[in-house]
Design a protein that fits this description.
By secondary structure, this protein is α+β, with helices and mostly antiparallel strands. The protein has six helices and eleven strands. A seven-stranded mixed β-sheet has the order 1-2-3-4-5-9-6, with helices on both faces. Strand 2 and strand 3 form a beta hairpin.
Length: 216
């Protein structure tokens, strides 16, 4: 698990990896990790042909804690609602020998279904801006790719939540988990934005463009 997590983070998977905090937490709590505002969930794909079911893939979703922290004005109850509506796919990795077998697609679908059944409305992943194969992989699975620093908006119980990639060399891949809604690209005089709507928006979902930079 530690090695797969390093793969997802772009680290050297060839370095030795012993059981660490992340793997131990998965073992102790059945893949569920207690976090501020909610729970992180790790899903593992195993090699069905191996005698001991060796792990070949890992998906980890969690509430976007830093983003939720930035919306302290919502209060504790509002922040919990935000955590339930929005999730980040923080880690997704498949061991090299198992790539191309569909393990990653199965993990992604399972993570989405778990979040959907819990009432989550929107999932996003941060992908290195220069990693075109991975960006296209998400696009082919129904994700809309934000351009650098393009804001993403979602209305959570009347509170307009706005966030972007943070300008750190990553792009956001965003997908609605509601069957009746999709993520669309809209435009204002100052640029474009992504929003969850029932139909392609003709106007931004806020009454006036948000002031300052979107929050992460």
């Amino acid at each position: 698990m530690e090695a797969l997590a390093r793969v997802a983070l772009g680290a050297d998977a060839g370095l030795p990896a012993g059981p660490g905090t992340f793997a131990a937490a998965i073992d102790r709590h059945g893949g569920r990790l207690a976090l501020p505002y909610g729970t992180g969930c790790a899903l593992v794909a195993e090699d069905g042909e191996a005698a001991e079911g060796a792990p070949i893939g890992l998906a980890y979703t969690c509430p976007p804690v830093q983003l939720i922290d930035a919306y302290a004005e919502l209060g504790a109850r509002g922040q919990r609602r935000l955590a339930g509506a929005l999730a980040e796919l923080e880690l997704l990795a498949v061991a090299e020998p198992a790539r191309g077998t569909g393990a990653g697609t199965a993990l992604l679908a399972a993570a989405e279904e778990r979040l959907r059944s819990a009432g989550c409305r929107l999932i996003f992943a941060k992908v290195r801006a220069d990693d075109r194969p991975v960006l296209e992989w998400y696009r082919s699975r129904g994700y809309l790719l934000a351009v650098p620093r393009e804001p993403v908006t979602i209305d959570v119980d009347g509170a307009m939540i706005v966030f972007d990639d943070g300008g750190d060399g990553y792009r956001l891949a965003v997908k609605s988990l509601e069957s009746t809604q999709q993520v669309h690209r809209g435009s204002t005089r100052t640029g474009t934005y992504l929003a969850v709507t029932r139909a392609r928006p003709s106007a931004p979902p806020w009454s006036a463009p948000p002031r300052g930079r979107p929050r992460r």
